[in-house]
Amino acid sequence: MAEAVHPRGTKPRRRLSGRNIMLYGTLLVFSLYYILPLWVMVMTSLKGMPEVRLGNIFAPPVEITFEPWVKAWAEACTGLNCDGLSRGFWNSVRILIPSVILSIIVASVNGYALVNWRFKGSDVFFTILIFGSFIPYQVMLYPIVILLREMGLYGTLWGLVVVHTIFGMPILTLLFRNYFSSIPEELFKAARVDGAGFWGIYFRIMLPMSLPIFVVALILQVTGIWNDFLFGVVYTKPDLYPMTVQLNNIVNSVQGVKEYNVNMAATLLTGLVPLIIYFVSGKLFVRGIAAGAVKG
Amino acid sequence: MATTKRPRNRMFRNINAKIAAIPMVLTTLVVFVGGTIWTVVYSFTNSKLLPKLKFVGFDQYERLWSNSRWLISIENLALFGVFSLIFTISVGFLLAVLMDQKIRFEDTFRTIMLYPFALSFVVTGLVWQWILNPSFGIQSIVRSLGWESFTFNPLENPNLVMYGLLIAGLWQGTGFVMCLLLAGLRGIDEDIWKATRVDGIPTWKTYVIVIIPMMRPVFITTLVLVAAGIIKLYDLVVAQTSGGPGNASQVPAMYVYDYMFQAQNLGQGFAASTMMLLSVLIVLIPWAYLEFGGKKHG
Amino acid sequence: MSYSIQVKDLKLDFGAVSVLKTLNIDVAEGEFIVLLGPSGCGKSTLLNCLAGLLDITDGEIWIKGKNVTWAEPSERGIGMVFQSYALYPQMTVRGNLSFGLKNARMPKEEIDKRVARAAEILQIEPLLDRKPAALSGGQRQRVAIGRALVRDVDVFLFDEPLSNLDAKLRSELRVEIKRLHSRLNNTMVYVTHDQIEALTLADRIAVMRGGIIQQLAAPQEIYNRPANLFVAGFIGSPSMNFLHGATVDNGRAFQFGETKIDLSGYDGGAVLDRPRAILGLRPEHLLIQTEAEPGRTLPAVVEIDEPMGADSLVWLVAGGTQMSVRVPVERRLAPGTRVHLKVDISKASIFDTESEKRV
User: Fold this and answer.
1) Residue spans per domain, chain A
2) Is C284 in the same domain as C211?
3) CB atoms B222 and A128 under 8 Å
4) Does the A91-240+271-291 domain belong in CATH 1.10.4160.10?
5) What is the pLDDT of residue A291?
6) pLDDT tens digits, residue range B9-24?
7) Which CATH number is C270's domain given?
């Protein structure tokens, strides 16, 4: 029998154990799958068309050119016009800002009322709201067309803003309701004894305490609304199409020669806003998407 | 003797809260409930360009189920749905378990796995359309490496096109599922792990017999979220394949859109969307029963 | 006599559940009332009704001669202190104290004056510009009291204000609340589940259970003459000893197994003969001795003794019933020792087993 090691002090640990190789190896392989499309997009968008035709889509450009980006932004054709994605970008911005603001205001007030000012039937409305988020949009598409037409908003940016506010309501209300119900009820009671009313408590007590959840809601809505395609197609007219719709029309347009580098530049440009939000916000983004899984 | 004014009516108590709830009440009653009922009712009419209340019984449904394009759509969605569910959840769980091994660079790995989820389906569809392009993408690269007969062109092969969409769908969605399941894993009491270590139960066995059963609610919630997402599948297909080649990658949401807004056959669109609603209810009702119904009795 | 608070036939239902059942309380001006009871007894609910934070189902609430049944909390002339302090985290101490006054649109000089006075009384002047997160638990509770103080109201409502504090701080603040009461001399309604707080602070205690006030009386009265079995068992630690037996000889004696205890000198009503009755004896009203006295003692066997520092608790079994007796700490008794317990009948209580009421 070999001489036994006398164990003392720190337990020795092997860095390169079989387990670790398996673990990090698997994670790296998956990471490659995830990261490859982004790599391909960037590389293709920086190549000239001749290089795209000859080369390997994974290979970095021999000669870097920003021409495709400029073209995608200012000159790409959709079949209707040839002024590039910039039109869609600005449309998206014009849709995004009021939609995000309005949907967050409505949902945060909803959540607050549901937690602190319950009235008869408020829970019923909340339940319908949550179940409503599972109804396929297709079922409600046409009735909303009629409603918007009645209000004179069909085909306008404001019509789309209303639609985003409606469909953002379930998840955002859930988010705010869960957050507000984690604030001690005694704080609300104290404010009532101090003579603050519905709006007083909302603005002076709840709002200042809830900035993180407003940021989460902001991230959720900016990415969600920016990435919308269906509502953009259904409720706006071609010259008001948001960026995603315009991108699809540019890339899948059957006219002319396919310029893959321009297409990839356009795709990247469209993905840029949510990507920037994602990389800047980090864990708050995770919290936002996890909110969807939190039960009410 | 001073008496404070009594609110005349219960309706006027907390009037501000009720005013604030008007958008929610309108959304739930008019859009969600009203809109759904409206569509279901009009699915029994022969509305063409404009909705008309001329009832034709189940005609639209008979026409729907004898339309080969609809049948393909349903078949495609079933195929995509089953594979998506299996792969997103199994791969998502595998990744979540790997991420839960107190690894280094956890944040980096998570950032990489989750970023596709931040992107639009349109962006996802277009990127994969490019990567799977037979003349420039993976197929051409493998061929240029000397394997001349290599064929991988799912987007041009009617039998494989759904798998091409699946690759893109998984790329976008698994990170999200991983995050949900990782949160579930992290929610499990540390003491469980300590107890199994003291008892000498191997790690893999702990996952199978202790952790997975404990995470049942998380799995169910994930399943419902993923399933609800699959039924809405639309943007990805439009961007990546436009439903082609031919009608090979049609999905129900596309059928609805085309009949409602292109073919001017509203009745068909309503019938098809009602079928979509029905399929959601098939997923949702058992879940709601398990989740909420059981508690009231127990 | 003018009342500070009057509760008339107050009822509260949550759906089909009756939470408070026809309560009547009159609180005199300057009185310190403690609402005491186990959790779920409705004491905090009653306080919330007084504050106007819950709408009652039926009855009236009067504060300072005004019917405030439908008034908003801020219109009732009350200040309230909460268990979790409920300080607004984003405001400084000064902001917390002045928030209510600002809502009432009070002139700034008056607000400053009141805040300064409250801060002086509670000795929190150095903390005025700090945020609540930078304060200790005790300091936070002082600020919470200050928030009630600045309102310059006659009625203070306390909802278990000390239960989040550790034992030492709790007794310090208890004394401080008592000092505050004697200085301000305003009406205080104080909810707690801690009987020490109740016994030390209260002018009168309302013991509650199941939405009903079991007894409303001065602390000594409650301690010595509990109205029923529940109050007797709830107040006092360790709990009162209960002997199940019968009253015999025209109510002149209590029959407990073989032993008969003479009831002459009992402080209560007509005992009468009751086939089933309960004799309640507090641990400190029993004396352990070695010799028997007929009619005055009952035999018992020592089980265990627990020295508790100041005194010692002896656990015994008498006629199959476990009992506790408080003795001086020097007195150690070995398990198994046979002793006799001398009963001080003038401090005992007799309860009817059926009605559970004291006779």
Assistant:
1) 18-65, 91-240+271-291
2) no
3) no
4) no
5) 64
6) 555 667 888 888 899 9
7) 2.40.50.140
**CA C349 – CA A136 distance, rounded (Å):** 71
In a domain, C115, yes or no: yes
Is C359 within the bounds of a domain?
Answer: no
Does residue B30 sit at the A interface (CB-CB below 8 Å)? yes
- The predicted-structure confidence for C15-55, as pLDDT tens digits, reads as follows 888 999 999 999 999 999 999 999 989 999 999 999 999 88
My answer on whether C75 and C135 are in the same domain is yes
**Pairing assessment for the beta strands C58-63 and C66-67 based on DSSP bridges:** antiparallel
Lowest-confidence region among A74-78, C208-212, C258-262: A74-78
Least confidently predicted of A80-84, B55-59, C197-201: A80-84
**How far off is chain A from C69, nearest CA to CA, in Å?**
15
The DSSP letter of residue C339 is E
User: Distance between CA atoms of C95 and C88, rounded to whole angstroms?
Assistant: 8
Q: Mapping DSSP to helix (H, G, I), strand (E, B) and coil, where does residue C237 land?
A: coil
Contacts of C45 in chain A (CB under 8 A): none
**String of DSSP letters for C15-39:** TTEEEEEEEEEEEETT-EEEEE-ST
Domains along chain B with CATH numbers = 63-297 (1.10.3720.10)
Judge whether residue B4 has pLDDT over 70.
no
Provide the chain A residues 220-249 that lie in CB contact (below 8 A) with chain B: 223, 226-230, 233-234, 244-245, 247-248
CA distance B276 to B260: 14
Last residue within a domain, chosen from C233, C252, C270: C233
| Residue C134 is assigned to a structural domain of this protein | yes
- C2 CB within 8 Å of a chain B CB: no
Chains touching B by CB (3 or more pairs below 8 Å): A, C
b/e map of B114-133 (b: 16 or more CB within 10 Å)? bbbbbbbbbbbbbbbbbbbb
pLDDT value at residue B298: 33
Structurally, chain C folds into a number of domains equal to 2
In a domain, C357, yes or no: no
C-alpha span between A193 and C47 (Å, rounded): 13
pLDDT score, position B2:
41
Residue of C nearest to B1 (CA): C66
State how far residue C68 is from chain B, nearest Cα, in angstroms. Answer: 6
**Which structural domain range is residue C302 located in?**
239-352
pTM over 0.90: no
pLDDT in tens, A193-249: 998 889 999 999 999 999 888 998 998 899 999 999 999 999 998 889 999 999 999
Asked whether residue B7 carries a pLDDT value surpassing 90, the answer given is: no
Q: Are residues C53 and C172 in the same domain?
A: yes
B218-234 residue pLDDT tens: 898 888 888 888 888 99
